[in-house]
From TrEMBL:
Residues 362-437 form the Alpha galactosidase C-terminal domain. This is Alpha-galactosidase. Residues 1-18 form the signal peptide. Its EC number is 3.2.1.22. PANTHER family: ALPHA-GALACTOSIDASE B-RELATED, ALPHA-GALACTOSIDASE/ALPHA-N-ACETYLGALACTOSAMINIDASE. Hydrolyzes a variety of simple alpha-D-galactoside as well as more complex molecules such as oligosaccharides and polysaccharides. GO terms for molecular function: alpha-galactosidase activity. CDD domains: GH27. The keyword Heme does not apply. GO terms for biological process: carbohydrate metabolic process. The keyword ATP-binding does not apply.
């Protein structure tokens, strides 16, 4: 209990954000960048990252905020995992001939930041050296190399580190917050369901992630901390005290049912995000797999709306102009990166199903949120046919039926005109209407026009 109070106090006095406070900037807003996993998995080398760095600059993505170049799994030497004298993780010199520090130096020359990948178990997911028990040394090593961001995964955790109770978001079916059914035989059924009100900061998962936080804090460098614990042990309840972001779910895949499944979960757990701490719905699959253009758009719009980190996972060389246009959408990025409003968009109506329905194929469709540039509304069409979708201003938090509003289409950036009461638009199958609404003729709006 004493420990828990200590954390609440730390959070209240801003020390909970000590990870971020060395420079007062890092981690305040959701991270934006690129990560190698979705496209290359283990087939990486220094050239991949330096090329991506150059493309982030030349495509204009850096100027839009995409500044992280993140190395995922498989960067270290799989055979000789650690130096037998210093104990440091050995880079794979075949992939990084001059070591990771050289890659970091080159990335920094481009005005970008280099991220690396580690694991809170004995081995990473692809069976390279893990950091459990080596947190301090590994954090120091990353700092020496000039690393700016750590994605810390959750594979190969030894049994003595098993949590007493289990909560895996993938198994949750909309019941009580601690409910965890071992649906489909997923996971370790030896772990019981936690009692109501269970304090998840007493879990071993918390310990493992906090130990790396402390190790990062002890270095002489600000390293953004991305906790990839897949939502386990209700990290949504404590991840803000240990890091800058936390994964909310298992791995994303570039197919529509996974996108809607994650959105359905988000409709019940969006509240944990705000400045300095971000619910991470996993890296972007925009441009990958079997998504249609409309699905690519919805995936990006909703991840931006949820204030998820926006980490591109598609190759940038030869990127299709329509995919680049989605990733470069200024209105959506501005909502995600708003300096004044830190909260995620929230569902205000479900649509296909009654409000608060748990449904992985038809999640909440009507979402809204505030930014310093107005009220943003996101209307997803989860049906398989084109729909005429109506935004009823009386239903949107902060708006009313009487006021006249100017509506801006966030996809085109164009004013749609002035509206009172309702706004409607045709939304293709699996597409998302994204609009920004401001009081008609308000000075705030004119100011925004000047800014943009
Ligand atoms: C996360 O912590 C920071 C400061 O440590 C605080 O400003 C923010 O509101 C917290 N987020 C939530 C959702 O409580
Ligand atoms: C680096 O990796 C990329 C992507 O897997 C590959 O196409 C390229 O041949 C590799 N280059 C070297 C020098 O290994
Ligand atoms: C330590 O590693 C080096 C390089 O791989 C090797 O030559 C040496 O024999 C090892 N020493 C011990 C004590 O294992
Ligand atoms: C820590 O970093 C600061 C600023 O970069 C530097 O002035 C200082 O010498 C460093 N201290 C150590 C112990 O490396
Ligand atoms: C989110 O927080 C708000 C304000 O405290 C509350 O009204 C709402 O019920 C919460 N939503 C969920 C899904 O917990
Ligand atoms: C959306 O992304 C997927 C994956 O690249 C791609 O196959 C598809 O072509 C994209 N949609 C369009 C119409 O470009
Ligand atoms: C999800 O919603 C659809 C549309 O209302 C419905 O047909 C389906 O049965 C629902 N699925 C579940 C698991 O409730
Ligand atoms: C959409 O619905 C509104 C009424 O809700 C109607 O006025 C409008 O004409 C419809 N648009 C289309 C394209 O069907």
């Amino acid at each position: 209990m004493a420990l828990r109070f200590a954390f609440i106090e730390l959070a209240l006095f801003g020390l909970g954000s000590a990870l971020v406070s060395k420079d007062g900037v890092t981690g305040r807003l959701p991270a934006m960048g690129w990560n190698s996993w979705n496209e290359y998995e283990c087939a990486i080398n220094e050239t991949v990252f330096l090329t991506v760095g150059e493309l982030l600059v030349s495509l204009g993505l850096k100027d839009l905020g995409y500044t992280h170049v993140n190395i995922d799994d498989c960067w270290s030497d799989k055979e000789i995992q650690r130096d037998n004298v210093t104990g440091k993780i050995n880079p794979d010199y075949k992939k990084f001939p001059q070591g990771i520090k050289h890659t970091a130096d080159e990335i920094h020359k481009l005005g970008l930041k280099l991220g690396i990948y580690g694991d809170a178990g004995t081995l990473t997911c692809a069976l390279y050296a893990g950091s459990l028990g080596h947190e301090e040394l590994d954090a120091q090593t990353f700092a020496e190399w000039g690393i700016d961001y750590l994605k810390y995964d959750n594979c190969n955790v030894p049994h003595e580190w098993d949590d007493e109770y289990r909560w895996w978001p993938d198994n949750w079916r909309g019941g009580p917050p601690n409910e965890d059914q071992t649906a489909g035989g997923v996971g370790d059924s030896n772990q019981a369901v936690a009692p109501p009100g269970y304090d998840w900061t007493t879990s071993k998962t918390f310990d493992r992630y906090k130990t790396m936080r402390d190790a990062l804090l002890a270095t002489n460098r600000t390293i953004e901390y991305s906790q990839c614990a897949w939502g386990h042990a209700h990290i949504d309840e404590w991840g803000n005290s240990t890091g800058h972001s936390w994964r909310m779910w298992g791995d994303i895949h570039p197919v529509w049912p996974v996108v809607t499944t994650i959105l359905n979960h988000a409709a019940f757990f969006y509240n944990s995000s705000n400045f300095w701490g971000h619910a991470d719905y996993d890296m972007l699959e925009v441009g990958n797999g079997d998504l249609t253009i409309e699905e690519n758009r919805s995936h990006f719009a909703m991840w931006a709306a949820l204030k998820s980190p926006l980490i591109i996972g598609t190759p940038l060389d030869g990127i299709k102009p329509e995919i680049l246009a989605i990733l470069a959408n200024k209105e959506l990025i501005a909502f995600n990166q708003d300096p004044i409003h830190g909260e995620s968009a929230k569902p205000y109506k479900w649509g296909v199903n009654p409000d608060f329905s748990w449904n992985q194929s038809h999640p909440a469709e009507y979402w809204s949120g505030e930014s310093s540039k107005g009220t943003h509304v996101f209307v997803l069409n989860t049906l398989d046919t084109t729909q005429n979708k109506t935004v009823d201003f009386a239903e949107v938090p902060g708006l009313d039926a009487k006021t006249e509003y100017t509506v801006i289409d966030s996809w085109t950036g164009k004013e749609q005109g002035r509206f009172q009461g309702k706004y409607h638009a045709v939304v293709e199958r699996h597409d998302t209407m994204a609009i920004r609404i401001v009081k008609a003729g308000s000075s705030g709006y004119n100011f925004q026009k000047i800014l943009w």
